[in-house]
Amino acid sequence: MPSSNEYRTAADPEATVALPVVTDDRVDPEIDTEVGKAEQTLLEQLGGFSGLIYSTLPVLVFVPVNTFAGLTVAIWAALGVAAAILIWRLVQRSPIQPAVSGFLGVGLCALIAQRVGEAKGFFLFGIYTSLVYAGVFAVSILLRRPLVGVIWGALNGHGHRWRTDKRIRKLYDLATGVWVVVFGARYLVQSQLYDTDHTTWLAVARIGMGWPLTALALVVTVWAVRRAGHLPAEKSGAGTEPAPS
């Protein structure tokens, strides 16, 4: 049986479910282990740390090749690198979904660059994608449905019951807010470089604000999940009944 300080009844008068308490006590080792396993699975689905690094290679190739050989050759070089990464993952029997998504993304960026007629067009899709993501994450906080909590609940069978606990919701607000800052900073910096035709610095910003900032946001996300004490559903017994209106 769980100890009395592990659960409390939500303060919301519309809810009667028991939820984990966020305290300053040491995180339960079982929770720590199970959450760690879920985090590792999620990271593998994203391509792992190597996948985050591989995502920068087409950019590293595109900019210098464009400088010395022109836009058309640079486009084909970036596509070639993305294809090589996909083949390498197939050979290594690694998860290929991130590589497939990366190849399609590079293809779309290359198409935009070809249509724009300038190398900086290669970065246009990523710039506006960051703006959209920042907006979606920000709106989720305003709607009291922070996206980090929604995604984690969906992945691990908790549904939306955590929303009845203000302290847990604040943790997910914080983690979601960090993603807003990351995506918002990417848009602001890179759109400015795009408008001023600083293509080389645009590539530097794309890489520097890519996986390093993603890793930072993931650290905060992991911390929030651990403090919330959310085990995967089969361990915690959490259900998926809908959240109160």
UniProtKB/TrEMBL annotation:
Q: Which domain of life is it from?
A: Bacteria
Q: Which residue ranges does UniProt annotate as crossing the membrane?
A: 46-65, 71-91, 98-116, 122-143, 171-189, 201-225
| Keyword presence, Transport | no
What is the source species? Nocardia alba
Q: What is this protein called?
A: Uncharacterized protein DUF3159
Q: Which keywords appear in this protein's UniProt record, sorted alphabetically?
A: Membrane, Transmembrane, Transmembrane helix
Keyword flag Membrane:
yes
What the entry lists under Pfam families is as follows: DUF3159 (PF11361)
